[in-house]
Amino acid sequence: MSDQNNINSSQYWDNRFESDWESNGGREQSRFFARVAIEALPQWLVHKVRWDNLSVCDWGCAQGDGTETLAQLLSWNVTGIDFSRSAIERAARTHRNARFSHENLLDRPDRPPFDVVFSSNTLEHFVKPWDAFEQISHYASKFIVLLLPYREFDRHIEHEVTFDAPNIPLAPNPDWALVYESVVDTRFREPTYWAGHQILLIYARTAQLGLQRLSLADARRSGVDADDTSTRTKQSLAYVQGEKSRAHQALAQAEKEKWRADEALAQLDAEKLRADHAIAHLETEGLRANRALAQLETEKVRAEQTFAQAEAEKSRADEALAQLDAEKLRADHALAQLEVERSAAKNAKFGLVSASTRMSVLTHECETLRGKLQQLTDEHARLIDATHQRDECIHFLRYRQQSLMTEVTTLLATRSWRWTAPLRVVRGMPDWMRRRLNDVNYAYAHGGVWNVAHRSLAYIPKQMKRRGEIAPAGTMPAGSVARSEPSNPPASPAGITLASKTPRALPDVFVFSIIDWHFRIQRPQHLAREFAQAGHRVYFFSNHFDDAREPGYSIERLDDLLPLYQVRLKVHRAPAIYFAAPTAEAIQQIHAGMRLLLDWSGTDRSWSIIQHGYWYPIATGLQSECLAYDCMDHHEGFGNVPQELLAIEEQMMERADLLVTTSSWLENHARKRNSHVSVIRNAGQYRHFCDAPAERFVDPQGRQIIGYYGAIAEWFDIELVAQIAQSFPDALVLLVGADSAGVGDKLARYPNVQMTGEVPYVKLPYYLYAFEVCLMPFRVIPLTLATNPVKVYEYLGAGRSVVGVDLPEMAQFGDLVRIADTHEGFVGQVRAALAALPDSQEVVARRKAFAAGQTWAHRVADFRNEIQALPRPKVSAIVLTYNNLNLTKDCLDSLERHSDGVDLEIVIVDNASSDGTPAYLSAWAGSRANVKLILNDDNRGFAGGNNQGLAAAMGDYLVILNNDTVVTRGWAMRMTRHLRHNPWLGIIGPVTNNIGNEARVDTLYTGLDAMHIEAQALTDRCLGEWFELDTVAFFCAMLPRSTYERCGPISEDYGVGFFEDDDYCRRVQAAGLRVGCAEDVFVHHHLSASFNKLGEEKKRALFETNRAIYEAKWGPWTPHKYRESRKIVSEDAYV
Predict the structure, then answer these.
(1) Cβ contact 564:530 at 8 Å
(2) Buried-exposed string 926-956: b where 16+ CB fall within 10 A, e elsewhere
(3) CB within 8 Å of 175: residues ≥ 6 apart
(4) What distance in Å separates the CA atoms of residue 1077 and residue 493, rounded to the nearest whole number?
(5) What is the DSSP letter of 971?
(6) What is the pTM assigned to this prediction?
(7) What b/e sequence results for 93-124 when a residue is b if at least 16 CB atoms lie within 10 Å of its CB, and e otherwise?
(8) 3-state secondary structure (DSSP) of residue 182
(9) Whether the Cβ atoms of residue 55 and residue 114 lie closer than 8 Å to each other
(10) What transmembrane ranges does the database entry give (predicted)?
(11) In 3D, which of 709, 718, 847 has the Cα closest to residue 778?
(12) Are 772 and 799 in contact (CB under 8 A)?
């Protein structure tokens, strides 16, 4: 039994680490126990720590060897902590994959907790280990992982407790519960550093249990207690019996030694007491001496300071005396000069008076001109503002005209309109007969029967001709904006410069909007404009299409000072996005039009922001760095959204890189479907509303105005507004906005209700500044529960008093708005708001200050930060090498240069190369933190070597990559995108110049520099496209980790190589997944650079042998075949 005060002291362990730690194998033991823990850890915890980037503390890390092992093999974010300063200093110097900190958690330091606390073989040193657990549990927010000696009946001298099932609690306290245990027999390992058993315990905070959703299968993986290990238990029993007898003998000897030790300890205690008295006396004397010495030192310093100060004063006095002499000399000279100047001044005085008078006249003229210039400047600003307002009004009216035309032509094209044509004919027949009878009477009166016959014969052809001239459905009058109809190659629209394919500092932003730009100004337009203000090129896609059979687009520049454009795509029959999902033909045509647009714009990077489910199948084909769903509404709450569009939205919510919601209600709905959810609420255009306009609406009767502006639709509470009109008959209830719910008819009987219809966005302040009280009269329905109201930000930006319905999103405004949950309460709040008028300057300033901090610029800054903070896909590229060093160098160089957009890990496995490759790879890998190197002593073959790399890889996407390949720009990101957006796709490969199946394409290049240019031309024109094939060749193949976990490693039945890829693809298909080839990814391949060294005869023999193995498993082999070549039109495309 050890002395607790000694064994758990930093002095004890500092001495151990500085003396016999390494000689007793301490470092090897740390790495051994770390590997035991890693093998026993459940996969659900390994993945959760890695995918959620949880912070991990290795408590009691010693010199950090176990901590480094955890960081290397699990890619965890680990910090080693120990109370031994010498151990931590050694760990920080030696290891680079983990952080280290000198702390004692048992002293309860004031520091933030980690997500996970891991401890290996530490608690056995404490007499009360679960008290120590209680102390360290304050520094774990989610999990505590313990590795402990198990059933150690013959304890090590430094161990104070034996852990067994009866003394291991399921719940050490109400906050923690045991969720997993695993027992590991380490006696027969080579080498072994523990001749017994170790138990791994995982405790979770009880709050985590519901979130983790663990099953019974996740809770246990016992190595000695499980039923299927009874045989090993019997074998171990004999071993234990032998150890038992030896333990009794050792125990008797230990008792004798303990008696001797107790006597010696009593003697040592007496000696220690005498020594303590002597030390205390010496310390007292030493303290007195130190005080006297310190006093003498202080007096010495004071004396030296006084002497130095006196010397400095003397020096300054000498300098001052010399300076006075110089000043006197200069004064005498200046006095003589002054006498000369005084004489000259008398002569100049008369001229100065005359100049002063002239200066006064010129100053007056200058002030007059400055006033006129200010007047002209103000007038110029007013004219510019008026021009902008006029332009917006023109756009608004033109858009309204086009919308009405579209509605009319859509109505004319509907079946109901065609089916009701006979009814309209019958209904109009009496009037038509009456008019025709009047025509006949007139013709008869002015020419008799012959005149009637002549006019009748002329009437029929004329009517037929008029019918033929009716405009077909879907046509629209051309606007005045600049449009282009690109062909191939694309032409530049008038007034817009063609962009080159050069890398841009910021990605282009594609806003796939739910509305047209010139419709009511809302969130889509505001976000697009602020993205442009932040420096991005922004392409705003209208929800309206141009009816055309050929793909293409029209484009409109929306601001002369910003890179902001509206795009209208060409789609046959110009479908409305709200009423049905896009057809396969529409998707194909839109993708073709998008490629034309990308050719014209030179876009090389993009973010896609989707605001309606119709656009999701289109945006997934753009290979954007981020695909974000901007979820503005609870679309199901509209009640008229087709089920197929709701299904697309559900899919989009699950697969979007970023899911943005505008309210807490939508956030709760979204977090069930996606882990990357951010609330970015609506906002206000503060500058547009903060200053009162020169003119505002005036009621001719001079009444107080209770106002509302915005859409008047099914969520508008008509009964509430009627009650307000009744309750305040002397006030004007002014409603500004388009009425799509027939509200005007229902409120027509109230004389104090006035409705303006829809007005342009620029005219809203004209009405807003006339409102004494602003209303938010919404019904409480699922749609409004999810709504974050834009108009409240705008109301507050003008400093107005606001009364709203008690909806969840109103809570953020606090006491800046009045809210009510009943009609009577709402009327009462309006009455209170009117009584409080005029609002104090302090209240108005608070409202405006809030709105000034909630602008669309703030929201776009949040949007950009959320996108940039998204984790990049973790991709592990397994590169198998066997000689061909120059090819290996090209391959590795291309991986480093062109793997942008992903978090790349490179795992190199060398199969005993003999051309200097191992030495080169050792140096190359040693200088890179993201590289793992495995050097084999013998050739493990294609499958064996790749399986080593796959087992060591930590990525979510695994790539099998030959060393005779060169990857190209964007290869990894595009392949991960295909797999993410197509979860039924189990494995995917690229197109290439050299392979024996459908992935081969014709190429023209002769060097690698030309290859990259040609590859870009080949792949960009097929952006987002992939096709299905039977077998992906394993020169380059990417599979998600889920496929690897379902299908396992590559079959090693085929020896050195051939048929492994066919075999694996059959297993992928047998698992219900598909095999694909990415048309938009090109990888250069030398083809069989390693196999060519075998010679043709050996290659043929190997091929036939492996074919027999394959056919024994899967039946007759289907030879690979080429598809029709996909060629580039001309070499000019590469220039």
Answers:
(1) no
(2) eeeeebbbbbbeeebbbbbbbbbbbebbbbb
(3) 137, 205, 206
(4) 35
(5) H
(6) 0.60
(7) eebebbbbebbebeeeeeeeebbbbbbbbbbb
(8) strand
(9) yes
(10) none
(11) 718
(12) no
d(CA 652, CA 654): 5
pLDDT in tens, 762-797: 999 999 999 999 999 999 998 899 899 999 999 999
Q: Is 189 left (phi over 0), alpha (psi -120 to 50) or beta?
A: beta
Return the CA Rg of the chain.
42
pLDDT at 720: 98
Helix axes 43-51 and 65-74, enclosed angle (nearest 10): 80
Is pLDDT larger for residue 418 or for residue 288? 288
Residue 353: band (very low, low, confident or very high) from pLDDT cuts 50, 70, 90: low
Nearest to 406 by CA among 559, 512, 518: 518
Contacts for 1016 with CB less than 8 Å, ≥ 6 apart:
501, 968, 969
- Rounded to an integer, the average pLDDT of 675-686 is 96
> Does residue 105 have a pLDDT over 70?
yes
pLDDT value at 147 more than 90: yes
φ, ψ of residue 806 to 5 degrees: the values are -75, 85
Phi, psi of 601 (to 5 degrees): -80, -20
User: Are the beta carbons of 816 and 802 closer than 8 angstroms?
Assistant: yes
State both tokens at 617: 């199948």
* Rounded mean pLDDT, 1096-1122: 90
Does residue 472 register a pLDDT over 50?
A: no
Sheet of strand 176-185: strand arrangement: 99-102, 77-82, 55-59, 114-120, 140-150, 197-205, 176-185
DSSP 824: H
Give the position of tokens 């970023």: 658
Cα gap 1092→1100, rounded to integer Å? 11
- Which residues, 6+ apart, have CB-to-CB distance to 161 below 8 Å? 123, 124, 126, 127, 129, 167
pLDDT at 252: 65
Amino acid letter for position 839: D
Helix 26-40 with 65-74: angle, nearest 10 deg: 30
DSSP state of 179: E
Q: Rounded to whole angstroms, how far apart are CA atoms 649 and 646?
A: 5
Among 790, 763, 863, 857, residue whose Cα is nearest residue 529: 857
CB 1034, CB 1065: distance < 8 Å = no
Identify the residue with better confidence: 342 or 83: 83
Residue 527: band (very low, low, confident or very high) from pLDDT cuts 50, 70, 90: very high
Expressed in angstroms, the distance from the first to the final Cα of the chain is 82
**CA angle (470 as vertex; 469, 472 as ends), nearest 5:** 115
What six digits make up the tokens of 369? 């001109």
C-alpha to C-alpha distance for 712 and 182, rounded to whole angstroms: 64
**If we measure between CA atoms, which residue out of 141, 152, 138, 148 comes closest to residue 181?**
148
Find, among 792, 800, 797, the residue nearest to 837 by Cα: 800
Instruction: Report which of 554, 610, 836 is spatially closest to residue 704, judged by C-alpha positions.
Output: 836
Those residues with Cβ within 8 angstroms of residue 638's Cβ, 6 or more apart along the chain or in another chain: 783
Residue 812: what residue type? Q
Q: Give me the residue label for tokens 């034996």.
A: 162
Q: SS3 for 1129?
A: coil
> What residues have CB less than 8 Å from 1116, skipping those under 6 apart?
none
Nearest CA among 1110, 1076, 1106, 1078 for reference residue 1091: 1106
Nearest-5° Cα angle at 673, 671 to 675 = 60
Question: Which residues touch 889 (CB under 8 Å, ≥6 apart)?
Answer: 920
Q: Which tokens in the block code for residue 654?
A: 């699950």
d(CA 518, CA 511): 15
